[in-house]
User: Which sequence fits this backbone?
């Protein structure tokens, strides 16, 4: 236990909790939670908002990493909530196994990524949370509860925002290990993207489009992650974009040393699906992030709406990533019930200016039913979220049942619950 709680990864939020617990076992978690009246889980600190702030105590899941247990008959792996995806991936590779997809950063914890609905890209790839088939969490009374796929409340318990309890362990679907080739194509004419969005984003297993909007008619780059066992071969051009002659960073002009290998060289799934290597400090570090997910049918119109705001966006933007997510049935998933497209914004670290811009950006995306990423900066209120998430009231009832006294409540969840 320590009082040195510190900040989130980006440094834009100093946690207000007076106490940070660092348990090393589930039994220890149960004792800590049972004795607390106000506590939340803290993962790898990669959230940009106050989702993990505003309680008297925080409980770090960083030491809750093992054991990693593979069940080959069920094609699953059971892991501690605190393990980072990059670390889990290496364990799975040794077993000849893989996860279907990974986020751009392998540094994030499994528990935190699942709880906030984090995702990678790919028109057939669901969110990371959709790989969950079971989870264990400690409720406010200190009881250890398990949810399994098929249980009545399972779809509500997976993307849980930390509002139901402290998740200590998860069971994920796995598949045989596979290789991926990563190629970056540059200078995609934006009209080609808008004319054939499905063609561009469906060109391979995982595709991300990056643009700075400095030229509103050109997307800077398309990162294409191809599975040789499934995808058609790539050529030297892609819808008018040309293959890069050297490795690239998603932020134009930065060195690519921390990025996963490119230039079409085949390699392990875990060293190509993320944009960044586990052994390097991820991304640029000094940044803020927002993301809004719109139903795929609205993707082109939503991109056009962002382009209309490009003059106001550019001064605050480092890069805008456009990526796809397949539908799932998790109540608070941003791809609940619909194939989705994520419009992800990496901002400069000027939070007052970004917060001032967000309502205008959200208003422009409002006609397209844009759902915010739970772990990033947004301003949508409870009334908006009720419209966007049809099962939100069911989630409120589940949270009330598991945490009747609001032990895991904080200002973030109070807004969600309409308190």
Assistant:
């Amino acid at each position: 236990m320590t009082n040195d709680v510190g900040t989130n990864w980006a440094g834009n939020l100093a946690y207000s909790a007076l106490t940070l617990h660092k348990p090393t076992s589930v039994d220890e978690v149960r004792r800590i939670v049972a004795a607390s009246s106000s506590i939340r889980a803290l993962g790898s600190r990669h959230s940009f908002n106050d989702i993990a702030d505003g309680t008297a105590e925080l409980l770090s899941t960083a030491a809750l990493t093992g054991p990693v247990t593979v069940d080959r008959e069920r094609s699953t792996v059971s892991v501690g909530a605190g393990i980072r995806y990059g670390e889990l991936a290496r364990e799975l590779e040794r077993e000849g196994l893989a996860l279907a997809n990974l986020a751009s950063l392998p540094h994030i914890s499994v528990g935190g990524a699942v709880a906030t609905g984090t995702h990678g890209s790919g028109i057939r790839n669901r969110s990371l949370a959709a790989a969950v088939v079971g989870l264990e969490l400690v409720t406010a009374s200190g009881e250890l509860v398990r949810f399994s796929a098929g249980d009545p409340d399972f779809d509500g318990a997976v993307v849980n925002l930390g509002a139901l309890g402290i998740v200590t362990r998860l069971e994920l679907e796995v598949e045989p290990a596979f290789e991926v080739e990563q190629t970056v194509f540059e200078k995609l004419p934006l009209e080609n993207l808008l004319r054939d969005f499905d063609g561009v984003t469906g060109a391979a297993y995982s595709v991300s489009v990056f643009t700075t909007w400095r030229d509103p008619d050109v997307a800077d780059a398309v990162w294409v992650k191809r599975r040789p066992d499934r995808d058609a071969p790539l050529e030297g051009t892609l819808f008018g974009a040309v293959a890069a002659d050297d490795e690239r960073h998603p932020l134009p002009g930065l060195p690519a040393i921390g990025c996963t290998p490119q230039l079409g060289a085949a390699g392990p799934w875990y060293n190509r699906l993320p944009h960044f290597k586990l052994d390097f400090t991820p991304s640029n570090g000094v940044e803020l992030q927002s993301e809004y997910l719109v139903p795929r049918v609205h993707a082109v119109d939503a991109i056009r709406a962002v382009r209309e705001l490009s003059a106001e966006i550019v001064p605050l933007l480092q890069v805008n990533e456009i990526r796809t997510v397949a539908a799932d049935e998790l109540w608070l998933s941003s791809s609940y019930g619909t194939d989705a497209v994520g419009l992800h914004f990496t901002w400069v670290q000027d939070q007052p200016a970004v917060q001032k811009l967000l309502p205008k950006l959200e208003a422009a995306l409002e006609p397209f039913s844009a759902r915010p990423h739970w772990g990033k900066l947004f301003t949508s209120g409870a009334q908006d979220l009720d419209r966007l998430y049809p099962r939100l009231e069911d989630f409120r009832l589940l949270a009330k049942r598991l945490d009747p006294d609001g032990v895991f409540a904080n200002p973030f969840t109070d807004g969600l619950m309409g308190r």
Observations:
- The first strand starts at residue 19 and ends at 21.
